[in-house]
Design goal:
The chain has a single domain, classed as Orthogonal Bundle (Ammonium transporter fold), CATH 1.10.3430.10. It contains 14 helices and no strands. α1 runs parallel beside α3 and α9 crosses α10. The chain is globular. The chain starts with 6 loop residues before the first helix and ends in an 11-residue tail after the last helix.
């Protein structure tokens, strides 16, 4: 007998999946505006290609490795590889939603995660090397971590909560980005600055819009928690944006638009693991904390001379870790009975598990990413040549130009 479906919830989840899909083009615009004119297409294609290749990996084995078997373990099994045996009437047992809905919604998370890393090695990596890295990273980093957090794996058995991806998405990609920066080294030819701040603003707007599906949709149905996650997403991003603006205004003497936009993204990152577990007041406090912490992380990166071109580590890595730890502090069952009480309400064990799990993810993602790039470099060159970097990767690698000057 075919189960009766709540068509309203199904429709909501399909809209949420569409919003999350929009975030990857939004990221491409965000990154594209931040690089120089000669590398716009090279950075954007790294996001867009994930929409194709990661979709294949997710269908071939990713969904199965994350959501099939492996209770309390590091990785699942391959029983649902290529969606073997799945039908339109199949149900995802944990949520009660159609399996295909969970498949497509979670696929959008998988698509954007490796794309986040690409901002760290802007202008410096060969496209074929990136494709190999993307494949290995999804198989050995994202799929296991997503299983441990969301698929009933190890972290779930510890009681770890990650509402929408602070651990699985942002901490993992952010610390993979740091490893990438250290491996590929500095650019020989620095960009003069963002070539198009309006493009950065467009990307930020698309990311912010899509993030409502990212966070609110992670409740997997429409209820009071969905509404809380939606509101917390907007408030944390807004508070973080204004906090960053004022910090930069104080120390850099002028109110910078890119600073405002960066702060908004930091806020969106930090509220991601906490969105459905904290109060509105908690989201405000998290917004302030993450802006201060991420601003300091970016300043530290600059002081150390690390060429994290688009501040992926400083915003996504540090922001993701901060958000997970803040979830362990501010979570309250008063706002989500299915969540947990954080440190402020006596949840010491929960706080410790949140902290330990996200630190494990950060260390593992960093170590594997560096090792993978080292291994790939033994097989095929990872870094572009000085001549290619000087010419710009749009023409040297892709044979195209973002902006053609009329004769």
């Amino acid at each position: 007998m075919t189960p009766t479906l709540d068509t309203g919830n199904v429709a909501f989840m399909l809209v949420a999946a569409s919003l999350v899909m929009l975030m990857t083009p939004g990221l491409a615009f965000f990154y594209g505006g931040l690089v120089g004119r000669k590398n716009v297409l090279a950075i954007m294609i790294q996001s867009f290609v994930s929409m194709g290749w990661t979709t294949f990996l997710w269908w071939a084995c990713g969904y199965s490795l994350v959501f099939s078997g492996g209770e309390g373990a590091i990785i699942g099994d391959l029983k649902l590889a290529f969606l073997n045996g799945a039908m339109p009437t199949s149900i995802h047992a944990a949520s009660g939603m159609p399996l295909f809905v969970i498949f497509v919604y979670q696929m959008m998370f998988a698509i954007i995660t490796p794309a986040l890393i690409t901002g760290a090695f802007a202008n410096r990596i060969k496209f074929h090397a990136y494709m190999i890295f993307l494949t290995l990273w999804m198989l050995f980093v994202y799929f296991p971590i997503a299983h441990m957090v969301w698929g009933g794996g190890l972290f779930a058995s510890w009681g770890v909560l990650d509402f929408a991806g602070g651990t699985a998405v942002h901490a993992s990609s952010g610390f993979a980005a740091l490893a990438s920066v250290l491996f590929v080294g500095k650019r020989k030819f620095q960009d003069k600055g963002p070539h198009s701040i309006p493009l950065v603003a467009l990307g930020t707007g698309l990311l912010w819009f899509g993030w409502y599906g990212f966070n609110a949709g992670s409740e997997l149905k429409v209820d009071s928690v969905t509404i809380t996650a939606f509101i917390n997403t907007d408030i944390c991003a807004s508070i973080a944006a204004i906090t960053w603006l004022f910090i930069a205004w104080k120390f850099e003497k002028k109110p910078k638009f890119v600073g405002l936009l960066t702060g908004a993204v930091a806020g969106l990152v930090a509220i991601t693991p906490a969105a459905g577990y904290v109060s509105i007041t908690g989201s405000v406090i998290i917004g302030v904390i993450v802006s201060v912490v991420c601003y300091l992380a970016v300043e530290f990166k600059n002081h150390m001379g690390l060429d994290d071109a688009l501040d992926v580590w400083g915003v996504h890595g540090v922001g993701g870790v901060t958000g997970c730890i803040c979830t362990g502090i501010f979570a309250t069952k008063l706002w989500n009975a299915g969540g947990a009480d954080g440190l402020l309400r006596g949840g010491t064990h929960f706080f410790l598990m949140q902290t330990v799990s996200v630190l494990i993810v950060a260390v593992y993602a960093f170590a594997f990413s560096y090792a993978a790039l080292w291994l790939i470099n033994k097989v095929t060159t990872v870094k572009v040549t000085a001549e290619e970097e000087e010419e710009g990767l749009d023409t040297a690698v892709h044979g195209e130009e973002a902006y053609i000057v009329a004769d």
